[in-house]
Write a structure and sequence with these properties.
Length: 496
């Protein structure tokens, strides 16, 4: 069907028939959605997972897809395949647009087809999207890193910048703007991305070009906060900054991005001074906004949303007045819980156990308690930082810990085997196995924006942008994250 043609006549609204068994609907196929569904494997229920992608995405390794280390298939196996042996689970493609709490109905859409799925219990695990703090127009020039689409588009832009620089240099042109890469946001994703681009430029690509020296590429990491890696505390943040600088990354802190366009961006310092950086390839790893389904749920329950759009839930992860509805993972605001995979996994397992327990007449579980298994971030090959309880680890030991943990959590045996091979190629050797990108990937966002609802979830709600207020908020969040980590208070019950 050509673009612009009308859809063939389809029934407006189809209600999914249900069996007599208890119906659990799970929204999302990410960490919360998948682990919640799996936990219900032996329960006497029918599970319907509705997700807007057909894959389960291992977001922590997106940056490796963007920088040519891993293939998208290795970090995003088809959910249907992962759940093939779970007979009580059905997977349906669809973007959930409405949840009717009173009538217990979930409405989803795919290409004009509407589906209404009834539930007895609901687990909402729709995650978070990128936030541009109201500056949605930045997205066109500085893609975020939340989806496979993002990673492939960034791959195209990063390797494409080197190609265009070679071409420009062959024509005798100045190519500094093509050999300058800016990563906005010095959290774990920004650090990993900056480190990888630096390794690409200074190690991997050095022999591939003739007219340019990739060693002269500038990699700049920008953040409005005063430190790198706030969730890892002050000491690890400082260590990471030193290692990044040794790797050739320029770290610009206290620098709030105030303008982004095709050719570069402008940062503003606290004293009001501005600096313009000419750079074609820019990556946005700065802000997170919880899924807008949180707003739908908030409007129906009165549960408040925080600044990042996360909804307040009861200590058992249910919504006030709706004990059959659980919200887990990146969408929730509870006890300073961080937006990490383990919060989603443990929350979803807790919700699934509660659903099964209720059917078996068991007493309610004690309130949800997050067990912090630690956090880690890679800086470059053989260099990482890790935090496990009060333990702080840096260097090759942290890197080895990272390797083992990620290998364990990558879904599927065959993905683990090929990921190890690709890591071997990139970390021991100098290669990158997945450098290919197509024209369609590079221009994907522009094409998507022409579709109604196409790229909407990649960006935040538009809004007013108050620079001073935004800077104060970012500084406050960074200071609070660093304090919680330094005092080992992440995920600890507030006031308890
Ligand atoms: C680049 C990056 C790096 C990260 N690195 C780490 C790390 O190193 N360690 C760590 O612990 N955490 C890391 N995280 C965070 C971690 O990935 C998240 O905390 C985790 O994915 C949250 O799980 P979730 O189930 O809440 O959401 P997600 O895993 O994001 O899943 C959300 C699901 O909902 C679906 N969905 C969204 N909206 C709809 C809708 N309207 N209808 C239907 N389906 C919908 C999505 O398609 C997706 O399947 C990283 C995140 C990113 C983006």
């Amino acid at each position: 069907m050509a673009a612009g043609d009308t859809q063939p006549d389809l029934p407006d609204r189809v209600i999914v028939p249900r069996s007599d068994r208890h119906q659990v609907v799970v929204i999302g196929s990410g960490f919360g959605g998948l682990f919640g569904t799996k936990q219900l494997k032996d329960a006497d229920v029918d599970v319907t997972m509705i997700a807007k992608t057909t894959h389960h995405l291992f977001q922590p390794l997106l940056y490796q897809v963007a920088t040519g280390i891993l293939s998208e298939g290795e970090i995003a196996p088809p959910t249907r395949e992962v759940l093939a042996n779970q007979k009580n689970a059905q997977v349906l493609l669809g973007e959930v647009t409405d949840i009717d709490l009173e009538n217990r109905l979930v409405t989803s859409h795919v290409l004009g087809r509407e589906l209404v799925t009834p539930y007895d219990s609901l687990i909402v695990a729709a995650g978070a999207g990128q936030s541009y703090f109201g500056n949605d127009h930045f997205a066109e020039f500085a893609p975020g890193m939340k989806s496979i689409d993002d990673a492939l588009e960034l791959r195209g832009r990063i390797f494409g910048a080197f190609e265009m620089a070679e071409l420009g240099a062959s024509r005798g042109e100045n190519v500094d703007h093509l050999l300058t890469f800016v990563v906005v946001g010095a959290g774990p994703t920004g650090v990993e991305m900056a480190g990888q681009i630096a390794e690409l430029a200074h190690r991997t690509l050095t022999r591939d070009f003739r007219a340019i020296s990739t060693r002269h590429a500038r990699v700049i990491l920008v953040d409005a906060a005063p430190q790198v890696l706030p969730p890892f505390g002050h000491k690890l943040g400082k260590w990471t900054q030193e290692k990044l600088e040794k790797l050739g990354v320029e770290v610009m802190l206290g620098a709030l991005v105030s303008q982004v366009d095709e050719r570069g961006l402008t940062v503003k310092y606290k004293d009001g001074s501005e600096e313009r950086i000419d750079a074609i390839a820019k990556v946005w790893a700065a802000g997170v906004q919880a899924n807008k389904l949180g707003k739908t749920l908030s409007e129906q329950t009165g549960a408040p949303l925080d600044r990042a759009g996360r909804i307040s839930v009861n200590p058992d992860l249910t919504l006030p007045g709706y004990p059959e509805v659980f919200v887990v993972g990146d969408m929730i605001s509870l006890d300073n819980l961080p937006g990490v995979a383990q919060v989603a996994i443990q929350g979803a397992k807790y919700a699934a156990k509660e659903i099964e327990g209720r059917l078996q007449g068991k007493p309610a579980q004690p309130p949800f308690k997050y067990f912090d298994k630690g956090s880690m971030a890679i800086i470059s090959r053989f260099r990482a930082v890790a935090m496990v309880g009060k333990l702080r680890v840096t260097g090759i030991l942290a890197w080895l810990m990272w390797l083992v943990v990620h290998l364990f959590y990558i879904t599927g045996f065959k993905n683990r085997v090929t990921a190890v091979m690709h890591w071997f190629v990139s970390f021991i050797g100098k290669g990158r196995s997945e450098r290919t990108s197509t024209e369609q990937q590079i221009f994907a966002r522009v094409a998507l924006q022409r579709l109604a609802r196409g790229a909407t979830d990649l960006v935040s709600e538009p809004g007013e942008f108050d620079e001073a207020q935004r800077r104060a908020e970012l500084e406050e969040v960074a200071a609070e994250e660093a304090r919680l980590s330094d005092e080992n208070k992440r995920g600890v019950k507030v006031g308890g």
